[in-house]
Amino acid sequence: MVTLMRLTVIIGIALTTATICARVWVSNILSYQVARSDLFVPNGASATRVLKDLAPNLSVTERKFLFFLYPFFSHVQAGFYRFPRASSVIEALKSINDGNAVVNRVTVPEGITSALLFEQLGGIRILDGPISLEQERWLKLSDPFAHNEGAFLAETYLWQQQMTRNELLELMHRALEDALKKAWIDRDPIVDTALKSPYELLILASIVEKETALASERAVIAGVLIERLKRGMRLQTDPTVIYGITKGEKILGRGLRRSELDRKTPWNTYRINGLPPTPIANPGRASIEAVLDPDDTNFLFFVADGTGGHSFAKTLKEHNANVRKWREIEAGKAQK
Question: What pLDDT, on the 0 to 100 scale, is given for residue 325?
Answer without folding.
Answer: 86
